[in-house]
Amino acid sequence: MTFLVIVVVAFIAWKGYFAVRRAVSSYQKDRQEHDSLREYLVANGATTFQSLWPFYRHALQRAFKIKMQFFSKKIR
Q1: For residue 45, is it left (φ>0), alpha (ψ between -120 and 50) or beta?
Q2: Total-model pTM
Q3: Could you tell me which of 33, 37, 30, 25 has the C-alpha nearest to residue 63?
C-alpha cells in the first residue's frame, strides 16, 4: 500500500512540475513578445497586477490545457 501511495504522489509531482514549467515558459515568452500590451495598460491607468493579468491568465490556460483536453473528450 505504501508503495502505491509513493508512486501516485511521485506521478502527481511529476505532472505538476511540467505544468509549472509550461506555465513559466509561456509567461516569459508572452512578456518578451507582447510587453507593449503591459505598457499600454499601465499608461492608461491600470495597476501592475491588472497589467500583468493577461499574461498570468494565458500562462494558467497553457499549464492546464492538456488536462482540460483530457476531461473534455467525449465518452463513446
Answers
A1: left
A2: 0.69
A3: 25
